[in-house]
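Notebook entry, cofactor series.
This is the third protein in the set we're modelling with a bound small molecule. For this one the ligand is pyridoxal-5'-phosphate. I'm keeping the input format identical across the series so the outputs can be compared line by line later. Sequence and SMILES below, as received.
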Amino acid sequence: MNMQIENLVRQNIRNLEPYSCARNEFQGEASVFLDANENPLNAPYNRYPDPLQEALKEKIACLKQVDKRRIFLGNGSDEPIDLVVRIFCEPGVDNIVAIDPTYGMYKVCADINNVEYRPVALNADYSLDAQRLLAATDSCTKLIFLCSPNNPSGNLLASDEMLKVVEGFNGIVVIDEAYIDFADTTSFLSMLDRYPNMIVLQTFSKAWGMAAIRMGMAFASPEIIELFNKVKYPYNINYLAQEFVSNALNKQSEARKCETVKMLLAQREWLKEELGKLSCVQTIYPSDANFLLVKVDNSNALYTYLITCGVVVRNRHKLLLCGNCLRITVGIPEENRALIKAIEAYAKQ
Ligand SMILES: *Cc1c(COP(=O)(O)O)cnc(C)c1O
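Returned structure with ligand:
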């Protein structure tokens, strides 16, 4: 498809003269820095951090085998989700189409920006119907959000259906791959250069175990990345976060991440087996992520009971296709045993 990304961008963003911070205006080598009103003492924390996180992006480019100019780093994936809405969607005019049920932040960002949000039901088994999704779009639809593996259902969406959406839509398709490290599949990253309207989101919050650090990644065409850079806060990733993730990206931590994923997948299978023995459990949905969506006899009652046992899960009862469903994150063996014990006690009351 021959698509001009520029034509999808809001007029005010196209015309925007971005803030130029001191670190942007001067990038060469110098020994005396008197340009940013920083404190000369307390190194290295006195200096503003690299606004474009070049050193960290080089490591991520290597890790993901992606051109550095195709990487944006955000304060969690939530930052690029918000940016994409603000860059492409004219408040009160444009709209966003997304699968339902899915991650709640897409709708919250749309609502905050006064952009219409159009949820489109997945099939009963949480699979994607590309045709139904595309039918909900119109000439004011700028964005489609897909999440695979999907939260809260846990399943991968079929990649051929996802490609039908990417190829059949005259706008931006965001593919949220927060749980991709747990899934037995390949990322859409490898298809980035074929689809200039595709944005892939990944994060350090899940498989990498760094949710506290707040580091999300968006991968897209250099043109879209430039738009992100134009609109973001100048110093959106602080020095400590850049240093921490940079130091964590080595062969040893990569191996540790793989071990953790393996352990969690084995625990997920153990949980599935144990949950299947409990009479209050009606359905355990197939999962490609680090959590299980489970339909029980009464999710409100079980949720409340578990809290009295000190065990917190997520009650997804109110979401479409999730009646009486709990979303249970896979923990370490001891935590998973505590969960099963608590549900057994609930069944015995
Ligand atoms: C957890 C999660 C994220 C990660 O968000 P961060 O802001 O990077 O912590 C993104 N998308 C989905 C669907 C998630 O479940």
